Predict the 3D structure of the following.
Amino acid sequence: MSGNISLSEEGMMKISRICGGCTACCKTHAIAELQKPEGTVCSHCTVGTGCRIYASRPKSCRTFQCAWLMGFGLSEYRPDMTGIVPDFQQTAKFGLVLCLWETNEDALSTAFAIRQTRLNFELGKPVLHVPILGTPKFYLPRGKRRSDGSIILDGTKVKLVEVVEFVEGRF
Ligand code: SF4
Ligand code: SF4
């Protein structure tokens, strides 16, 4: 089994998982139906336990699956353990992009986040970092250049991103 959250064929292996006590995406992701913004714990969430309105939760919550739940990465990489919710978003220009959503401040600076970013760069894939505080950064791998600067992420509300071109040794 691959230990990495990347877009390789190996990483596409399906593994049956459940969220268990993880409620990380109930903080990181915006829920339009509830007008819940990104980076704030949902008012219906009991952190570490689950959703108090599980049976009637909005469609966004029913359909969302983070990359870990889809089988990417090792079982110990559950988002509440790493402080990072990984998911894949479709972009018009770059295809599937790995997005790393921070649940705890500075989680994007950990060895885990840096390794996942580097491994996707090696596959020629951009990676979006969404911090708890500050502007999301869209990191381009070696050889990719921003053209007109517009990044469209189909499945997320993230609109304002800083596009960062590859810098040797950054990851
Ligand atoms: S972050 Fe992933 S594992 Fe955690 S609650 Fe959300 S979908 Fe489930
Ligand atoms: S409604 Fe439930 S599943 Fe959806 S974000 Fe809130 S706590 Fe999480």
Q: What stands out?
A: The two ends are 23 Å apart (CA to CA). Helices lie at 25-28, 59-63, 79-82, 111-122.
